[in-house]
Amino acid sequence: MAARQKVGRFESLFAFAENADLGAVNRTVVESLIKCGAFDSTGARRSQLAAVLDKALSAGGQAQDDSRKGQMNFLDAFAAQAPADDVALPDIPEWPEDKLSKCEKESLGLYVSHHPLGQYEKTLRHFATAFSGDLGQLAHDAQVILGGLIKSVRMLITRTGRNAGSKMVIFDLEDLAGTVSCVVFPREYQALQDVIQPDRVVFVRGQVDRKREEPQIRTSEVLDVAEGQRRLASAVVVRLTEEGLDEAMLAALRDVLTAHPGQLPVFLQLENAAGTKTLIRASENFRVTMDAALAHDLNHLLGNGHTVLTANGSGYLVKL
Question: Which fold has domain 120-229?
Fold first, then answer.
């Protein structure tokens, strides 16, 4: 604060390092400020700032030492000729959203600009049949599907019963409405242990347990968000427009669908030039398996955004 009042707004990480008291504001503090977005106002990416952190602190420390010794500060002497600080930043991409959100949580204890569920919101709303805030109104043993982020996984050892000595897990699932505790008993844990990892976005299928003050979920299945979309989908809708639709296109679409046989029914949504949409259910011969291979072939034939999945959740159609 003293440095800010003296020099005004910090225009770069280098300016901060040169003017802030690095005896009080150490590397750990500056790294946390980068991670939480405190330097976003400089226009630099957090990945860039992290890459030059040590260089900035070294230059800033040297400048402060020179100032204390009364020596000439070459950074000041050549400020007019020196390039802008951001020119010295490496040209590297920003961290992925999951890392940005994780860093904000680590440094602040909460998410600010990048919530890890933000990019999955439409998908979670589409396939989830309930949210954590709804569980208090549901009946005991009600079957639900929730989607969210796995938090605070706790391993326990059962002490009694036929599974005595076996591992079980309790984890918190943070969804779009709050947090709910999910219990995974030993029999289920053997099959689910690989997917139950902190900070992973998943779908949880289970039963509501109302025996405690706060509802819990007795978990029977945990699915990675990508796998969940395929497993929880109830149908595949292929969107077609009147323009460009001819026998050759329909024949090519038939070949793609028949090359990926499975259990999901297929619907064709036809849109004419006036914007009127008609939904047609395809023959039972065209039931498909919705996987990455089919998504790739449909996108190659029709372009992105022409294939969606339907489900029994509470949201909208979700693009693959």
Answer: OB fold (Dihydrolipoamide Acetyltransferase, E2P) (2.40.50)
